[in-house]
Amino acid sequence: MSSPTFSSSSTADDVASAFSNEIAGKNVLITGTSKNGIGFETALAIAKHGANLVIITGYNDQRLKESENAIKAQVPTANIRRLVLDLASLSAVRTAADEVNSYSEPIHVLIHNAAAAISPFKLTVDNLETQMATAHIGPFLFTKLILPKVLASASPSPSPYTPRVVFVSSMAIRSGSGSGVNFETIAKPDAATYDAMDAYSQAKCANVMTALELCKRARGRVNAYSLHPGVIFTNMIQKEESRELAQASGLMNADGKPNTTGGVEWKTLAQGAATTVTAAFDPRLNDKPGAFLSDCAVNDEIVPAHCTDPGNRAKLWEVTEGIVGEKFVF
């Protein structure tokens, strides 16, 4: 049987269908799964193609219930579990992690999809910048706390399996400079120097750096990947707080619709989730830990040096440990 090939137009269902044998029986936790988002589309495709358990998360249980109902409307047999997880609160992250650690099942795949809106300067309850907290610091702590559940899914030969952690990043990593992240403002955000798009780029750089450093420190016990899903008209970009910036950058027209004449190649939600499903289940990635994907394929050459630099990655890891007040060790 030939290996499947995908393109920018492939959907999450296309990929999940091709890798249904890898999905079957797996327990998958996906952050940020509200309807009209790529996390929801990822959860739907995985549930449709045989996952044993799909854990959907978000900070609003009512919206999670809507997502659960929408998935079950298409896949009545889906085993969906809701988890309230507010990544913008370290206390809430710890509470959610305690709940996961009480589950009887291991976690085969952890997908970090959630992100905050690209918006004016805002602090979390922990006095952290919201984009960096939601996309990097909260996920870092959550991964550290549920690591035993992730490691418990590993299996030796004759059917070896290495757990996966997937970070939904962005091509915005290429707009950063220097170290890719500002190590001073991660712990002490500065409203005077804040730029919303730069903050987004820094958070997405942090995703790539964490994936690479996690692979290094795990020494083969976990495989982590990061990816660019494409440009998608998700619920995040449609939020009122993001609208002005989206219009100023040319992504959105004055009427609030996607700008299809500005040279941007828009993807549907299902197309946007395809690369996430690839990163989570494509067995061809087993010997490519730390890979960066776009359009369902490895695309490491586009990752800038400020993301791959070992010194930057180690420093980000240590700075983040300092913020959460815990050492992330194996």
Class from secondary-structure proportions: alpha/beta
What proportion strand? 5-15%
| Count of runs of 4 or more consecutive helical residues | 13
List the helices and strands in order: HHEHEHEHEHEHHEEHHEHEEHH
Weakly predicted, low-confidence segments:
none
CATH-derived architecture = 3-Layer(aba) Sandwich
Q: How many independent structural domains?
A: 1
Mean pLDDT across the residues is 92
Number of strands: 10
Strand order of the largest sheet: 3-2-1-4-5-6-9-10
For the largest beta-sheet, the strand count, sense and barrel status come to:
8 strands, mixed
Per CATH, the superfamily is NAD(P)-binding Rossmann-like Domain
What is the first-to-last residue Cα distance?
A: 38 Å
The level-1 CATH class: Alpha Beta
List keywords for this structure.
two-stranded parallel ribbon, globular, 330 residues, 12% strand, 13 helices, NAD(P)-bd_dom_sf, alpha/beta, Rossmann fold, 43% helix, 10 strands, single chain
List the SSEs and their pairings:
Elements: H1 12-18, H2 20-23, E1 27-30, H3 38-48, E2 53-58, H4 61-74, E3 80-84, H5 90-101, E4 109-112, H6 130-151, E5 164-168, H7 183-187, H8 196-218, E6 223-228, E7 231-232, H9 235-238, H10 240-248, E8 266-267, H11 269-281, E9 292-294, E10 297-298, H12 305-308, H13 310-324
Helix pairs in contact: 1-3, 1-11, 3-11, 5-6, 6-8, 8-13
Protein name: Short-chain dehydrogenase/reductase family protein
Family: Belongs to the short-chain dehydrogenases/reductases (SDR) family.
InterPro entries: NAD(P)-bd_dom_sf, SDR_fam
